[in-house]
Specification:
Elements lengths: L2 E4 L6 H10 L17 E11 L3 E10 L4 E9 L4 E7 L4 E9 L4 E10 L2 E10 L4 E7 L5 E9 L5 E9 L2 E9 L5 E8 L1 E8 L3 E8 L6 E7 L4 E7 L6 E9 L4 E8 L5 E8 L5 E5 L7 E9 L5 E8 L4 E8 L5 E7 L16 E6 L4 E5 L13 E7 L12 E4 L3 E4 L7 E9 L11 E5 L9 E3 L2
Antiparallel strand pairs: 1-2, 2-3, 3-4, 4-5, 6-7, 7-8, 8-9, 10-11, 11-12, 12-13, 14-15, 15-16, 16-17, 18-19, 19-20, 20-21, 22-23, 23-24, 24-25, 26-27, 27-30, 28-29, 28-31, 31-32, 32-33
Length: 456
């Protein structure tokens, strides 16, 4: 028996809310463990998995030289650390998803940024921490980034990744054997995948429709990669529709996400699909209008689903929890107010600019997305600071910014002049991170110089 879940700092929001339902007096902490790495300056655990005896975790660390590496580890159920290891492919690597396979292995989906290019990977380790194989996915033109992976009853691994660049934006879905051999690969244009899951024989993918931001897409495939059904959800009004997760339920699949409006208001949504891919119902669990955000969902063992969200007001950030039955009818809903919770004052967690590609008069920058405990990725702004001298950026005045993107092109850059660049993440409440991760890039008409990364 195994369990896998995306997680920030080892605890999911759903777990927190379920504990809150039980009551503070009924909950006691059995153990906690601090994971330390002597060569690392910053660490973040982003996903966990567990079997009957061990807890496995994956995340990223930034070492003293400024490189971001994959961190893997194993804890005993008693809380003792069994092993930890890091994996460095010569660039900056971040984890998208981490699951246990059927043959005592650990499967990881990750993205690497190296010399200005982004590349999606799938890798497999043993549960003792030994690397078995890894495979990268590139279409030869575009940058690729990992979105997630799932397992089929056959033991095959299905991986989804986004592709963006000269060939436009598209979603990739690929199947690998247990030994990492590619079995099939499908591309869907004008989509960016967000999440993937399977019921063992069918594969469900939730994606953002890049050509039409007010729509999201659900696609259902066979184990052989044949499309069974697709559905487009357009939300309400002119809000941008952003799916967050897809999970198999007792009968079919659930998709949860947010409808975001220009004024900052948001409405969480839940979609339910049958095993044949037909949409059964859609529910907006929070009926009031406000800056609300979907967090997570968990299929209920007897049917239906439990949904968690945040209800954000001018003075408070409250926790919302609701249970829907198999028909989408609300059974109960609870909100948890913590007096004095106030507004969000914590900046996003962001590792800074990853790299850059340059030509004679322009510079294209890339970075891994920031994570935030309140705001969605689409709400995070990235401020770009430049200087012709190292460490001399004016952090009170960015050269430009982009919203919800992980790349930016700077035009009209003087040829033959070093540009020192720092990128910082800002959440919807104006909290900006303070990283000083700087890259230096020389633009030249005839020479393409590799980015010189420095840690300051």
């Amino acid at each position: 028996m195994s369990y896998s879940k995306h997680c920030l700092f080892l605890v999911t929001p759903l777990c927190i809310l379920l504990l809150a339902c039980i009551g503070e007096s009924a909950v006691s902490q059995e153990w906690h463990t601090r994971i330390a790495n002597s060569s690392s300056a910053i660490g973040q655990i982003t996903t966990i998995s567990a079997d009957d005896e061990y807890v496995y975790f994956a995340g990223s660390v930034i070492n003293s030289s400024g490189n971001q590496d994959v961190l893997l580890g194993c804890l005993h159920s008693s809380g003792d650390t069994v092993w930890t290891t890091t994996w460095d492919q010569g660039g900056d690597e971040t984890v998208a998803q981490f699951i246990l396979d059927h043959d005592n292995g650990l499967l990881l989906a990750l993205t690497q940024i190296k010399e200005g290019d982004a590349l999606a990977y799938v890798a497999r380790w043993s549960r003792q921490g030994a690397l078995h194989w890894h495979r990268s996915f590139s279409d030869g033109v575009n940058r690729t980034s990992a979105a997630g992976l799932t397992l089929l009853n056959s033991g095959s691994v299905v991986f989804t990744f986004g592709s963006e660049g000269a060939e436009g934006t598209r979603s990739g879905v690929a199947s690998l054997s247990a030994k990492g051999t590619e079995q099939w690969l499908e591309y869907i244009p004008d989509e960016t995948p967000v999440a993937i899951d399977s019921d063992g024989s069918r594969i469900a993918v939730a994606a953002v429709t890049t050509a039409t931001p007010t729509e999201s897409t659900f696609r259902l495939f066979t184990a052989e990669g044949k499309l069974i059904e697709s559905d487009t959800y357009s939300g309400a009004g002119n809000g941008r529709v952003l799916p967050v997760c897809v999970q198999k339920g007792l009968k079919g699949f659930y998709v949860g996400g947010n409808i975001l409006f220009a004024d900052g208001a948001g409405s969480p949504f839940v979609l339910q699909y049958s095993t044949s891919g037909d949409r059964q119902w859609v529910v907006l669990p929070i009926k009031t209008i406000g800056q609300h955000r979907f967090v997570d969902l968990e299929p209920y063992p007897g049917g239906g689903v439990v949904v968690t969200a945040r209800m954000i007001s001018e003075t408070d950030i409250d926790i919302y929890l609701a249970r829907l039955d198999a028909d989408g009818t609300g059974i109960w809903a609870r909100s948890f107010n913590r007096p004095g919770s106030g507004r969000d004052e914590t900046p996003p967690l962001f590792t800074g600019v990853g790299g850059g590609q340059q030509d004679a008069h322009s510079l294209t920058l890339f970075w891994h997305p920031a994570s935030d405990d309140i705001c969605t990725r689409d709400e995070i702004r990235y401020n770009i600071y430049t200087s012709t001298s190292p460490g001399k950026q004016n952090f009170s005045q960015p050269m430009r910014f982009v919203q919800g993107e992980c790349s930016a092109k700077l035009a009209d850059i003087p040829a033959g002049v070093n540009q020192y660049v720092v990128v910082r993440a800002v959440d919807a409440f104006g909290n900006e991170d303070s990283n000083v991760h700087e890259i230096a890039v020389l633009t030249a008409a005839a020479t393409r110089t590799q980015a010189d990364q420095q840690w300051r």
